Amino acid sequence: MSDEHVVEYDENTISVLEAVWGEGFMSPGGTEEVDRVLGNVDLSQARVLDIGCGIGGAAVHIALTRKPMAITGVDIEENLVDLSQTLADKNGVSDICSFQQVDPGPLPFESESFDIVFSKDSIIHITDKFGLAENVYQLLAPGGLFLASDWLCGYEGEASPQMQAYIDAEGLDFGLASANIYRQALEAAGFVDIEIEERNAWYRNQARIERDNLAGPLSDQLASRVGENFLKRQIDVWNKMIVVLDSGEHRPTLIRARKNS
Ligand SMILES: C[S@@+](CC[C@H](N)C(=O)[O-])C[C@H]1O[C@@H](n2cnc3c(N)ncnc32)[C@H](O)[C@@H]1O
């Protein structure tokens, strides 16, 4: 990783996200949304890769409930990889879970190393969807599945002023793309059985509950941990996000695709 890399998910951000989304999670929906992404796929013999594992909640949940042969979480931020390892140790799943810090770009694994490539709300940070799809395809064994959740956009081209205001408020390195672009990228890589499941309607309601929790029951405890101003800025992010969820520009989406056998 270059020396200029700025840590995007710092301690205060993690505190707020875990308070809203649950231990180990930096994305909405917690374990239920992970289960929804995975569906009833049997992972018991699978080697699983989790791209953008964050602080490990999804990987640990998968290890505990699906008992894959192995699950490898990768993330570009070393502090997050360390927190993932700590969560796996705490849950007694370090024998099947391992975590690795990686540089952005093609991942450092041999071709066909995984049966499942999973990702939860992380590939939003990877701008080149065609390069990503090609890399995932290469990493999957024949018949392998790409099972992901991500934040997409409902437009191509310029963001509206409201969307731009939301992206600026997040302050994160977003490389948003539409469902159409994801589909094209997956097809170009060779994937088949591509499914795109829209989650905007669900998250539109959920985000309001989260914002009300932040501003209500969670506020005293969080303000004392992260400071009132930080918390206020986070509530502002949620308010701006609700506007673009309502307009349909922000589209949480599940993506599933298969590599031919
Ligand atoms: C919104 S968080 C989601 C984390 C986790 N999947 C979850 O659901 O809690 C996005 C994650 O993607 C990671 N990330 C950003 N760019 C990445 C890249 N090029 N490769 C792998 N991970 C990346 C971030 O460091 C962060 O941990």
Descriptive report:
By secondary structure, the protein is an alpha/beta fold. The protein has one domain (11-258): Rossmann fold (3-Layer(aba) Sandwich), CATH 3.40.50. 46% of the residues lie in helices and 20% in strands. The protein has helices at residues 11-21, 30-38, 57-66, 78-90, 129-139, 161-170, 179-189, 200-215, 219-226, 228-247, and strands at 47-51, 70-75, 97-101, 114-120, 140-153, 192-198, 250-258. Strands 3-2-1-4-5-7-6 form a seven-stranded mixed beta sheet, with helices on both faces. Helix 5 (129-139) crosses helix 7, helix 8 (200-215) runs antiparallel to helix 10 (228-247) and helix 9 packs across helix 10. It is globular and about 50 Å long. The two termini are 35 Å apart. The relative contact order is 0.15.
The average pLDDT score comes to 96
Q: Tell me the structural class.
A: alpha/beta
- The helicity comes to 40-55%
The sequence of SSEs as H and E is: HHEHEHEEHEHHEHHHE
Radius of gyration: 18 Å
How is this structure best summarized?
Helix content is 46%, strand content 20%. The chain is an alpha/beta fold and 261 residues long. Helix 3 links the parallel strand 1 and strand 2.
